[in-house]
Specification:
By secondary structure, this protein is mainly alpha-helical. It has 11 helices and 2 strands.
């Protein structure tokens, strides 16, 4: 019950802060619901692989996560878990599109665009996003492909705070590849991550007009660095379990997941094109 209360509170705060930041209440609630539908896709996947859900937590201007005690031990489970998020999100966008066609209200069309962009960003194969989990067992070094996609995409969409986003994405690339044993952070990686985050703080202070967007990215990256260092350097129990390797996808599994990924990406691009 406590976890449910925290989830509901985080959802309310998520909507409230978007509203206070100047977004109309309709869009703040609508965007929150679309993100919730996306996360419920992950919840459904975890239930299928017998995972215990601890809660769905929302972070304003960043996104949301599903907390669970389930350890995904195979690439198939991981791809399934990650794939159902943007898949559910696409259904949510299609329902919103249907509401627009029925009600002829431009606000719903704007939500279609926002929801499609949300899903497209999540489909980029970078460490923290769903696209990485979907494709990491299928394509070697997929995170570098995602990194290039994000830089190109971000240059056109996030010009005002692209450098801050750039540093955050570089930081996420420090996590270990799923094809290798987890070894934890190396000293030079911690130093580089610290330098990047210091640069992010300086950029955020200098770019005062984009504080609403930059500050959450800085806070998120500092939090992630702390969690990674704690779990890889100071938590002996977790360190001893870091030799767990994920079972690779079969050749058929790779073809299936890449095909699904491509089709879903095509649908999302089509929705963005239609709504814009």
């Amino acid at each position: 019950m406590k976890n449910v209360s925290i989830s509901i509170a985080s959802f309310a705060i998520f909507i409230g802060l978007y509203f206070l930041a100047g977004l109309e209440l309709f869009y703040a609630v609508g965007f929150g619901i679309l993100l919730l539908v996306h996360e419920l896709g992950h919840v459904f996947a975890l239930n299928k692989v017998e995972g215990t859900i601890r809660g769905v937590y929302f972070f304003p201007f960043v996104g949301a996560i599903v907390a669970s005690d389930k350890k995904l031990k195979t690439e198939n489970e991981h791809a399934y878990f990650k794939y159902l998020g943007p898949l559910a999100g696409t259904f949510g966008v299609l329902i919103t599109l249907g509401l627009f066609l029925f009600l002829k209200d431009e606000k719903f069309l704007n939500l279609v665009f926002a929801g499609s962009i949300l899903n497209l960003i999540n489909m980029i194969p970078v460490t923290l996003l769903d696209g990485y989990g979907i494709l990491r067992g299928s394509i070697k070094y997929v995170e570098w492909i995602g990194f290039l996609i994000l830089i190109i995409f971000g240059f056109f969409v996030f010009q005002e705070y692209i450098l801050t986003l750039f540093f955050l994405i570089i930081f996420t690339l420090f996590s270990d590849s799923p094809t290798k044993e987890a070894t934890g952070f190396k000293i030079y990686e911690v130093v580089l991550a610290s330098i990047f985050m210091l640069a992010m703080v300086i950029l955020t202070i200098a770019d005062r007009e984009s504080l609403v967007w930059n500050v959450p990215l800085v806070v998120l990256s500092v939090y992630l660095l702390g969690i990674y260092i704690k779990s890889t350097c100071f938590d002996k129990k977790n360190t001893q379990q870091n030799d767990l390797k994920l079972t690779p996808l079969t050749k058929k599994g790779k073809i299936v997941w890449i095909t699904k990924y491509t089709l879903l990406a095509f649908v999302l691009f089509a929705l963005v094109f239609y709504s814009s």
